[in-house]
Amino acid sequence: MSEAGEETIPGEVFVICGERDIARGQAKAFDLAESDGSGGSKPFRIVIARNDQGAFHAYRNACPHQGVWLNIGSGKFLDETGALLQCGRHGAKFAIETGTCLSGACEGAQLEKVRVLVLDGDVCIHGVALVEEDFAPRHDDDLEDTMEITIHP
Ligand code: FES
Question: Does the beta carbon of 113 sit less than 6 angstroms from any atom of ligand 1?
Answer without folding.
Answer: no
